[in-house]
Amino acid sequence: MSWLLRAFTLPGVELIMPILFPPFVRDRGNDVRHLLHRIGIRSARVDEKWRAYASLAESPNRNAFLRTLRSVIDSGGQSVSALDRIYLAAAVPTLIVWGDQDDIIPVAHAYAAHEAIPGSQLAIIEGAAHFVHAEQPERFVEILTEFMAATDAAAVEAGSYRELLHAQEATG
After folding, report:
1. Residue 36 above 70 pLDDT?
2. Cα 164 to the chain's mean position, in Å?
3. How many angstroms separate the CA atoms of 148 and 54, rounded?
4. Whole-number Å distance between alpha carbons of 149 and 1
C-alpha cells in the first residue's frame, strides 16, 4: 500500500484534512484543469487523481473515505485480506485488469488474486497505473469485450455459496 494511504489512517488525520483539502483549492484547481483541457492538455492519470483529491474537500466525503480506508489499511499497510473467501469467486467468471505501474495498490495483488481464483483471467496493462479504465480506455474496453465474448454467464445460486462456506469451515 502506498505510504500516503497508510498516513491517512493515523489518529487525528481527520483534524488536518480540512486544511489539506480546502474547497477553495478544489475550485481553483478545477478552473486550472478546465483551462488546460480547453487548450488541449490532458492526462487521464492526473485527472483521476485530481478528482480523488477534489472529492475530499467535502466533509461527508472525507468521513466516508477515512471509514473505508481504516477498515482495510493501517499504518503498517493492508490489514485485511480477501484471500480467505476469494475462492468463492471461482464459480463466477472473473477478469482482473491491472496497471503494471499502479502506485496505489501494487500489481502483486493482481497476481495473488489471480492465483487464488481458479479459472480467473488476468490482464496486466503496460504503462497504466491505478486508473487503467481512464488511462488506456481503448485497451481496457478491448480486454473487457474479448472476455465477455468468450465467457458464459455464471449459473450460481445463493445456496451453493452457503455450501461452499460450510465446506471450507469444516476443512479448515
Report:
1. yes
2. 27
3. 34
4. 34
Q: Higher pLDDT residue, 158 or 72? A: 72
The DSSP call for residue 121 is: E
Average pLDDT of the chain? 91
Cell 494511504 locates to: 5
Q: Which residue type occupies 136?
A: Q
Farthest-apart Cα atoms in the chain, separation: 62
Bridge partner list, 78: 73
Q: Which residue has the cell 474537500?
A: 57
Name which of 17, 10, 6 is nearest 62 in CA terms: 17
Q: What are the structural domains of the chain?
A: 3-78 (no CATH), 86-171 (3.40.50.1820)
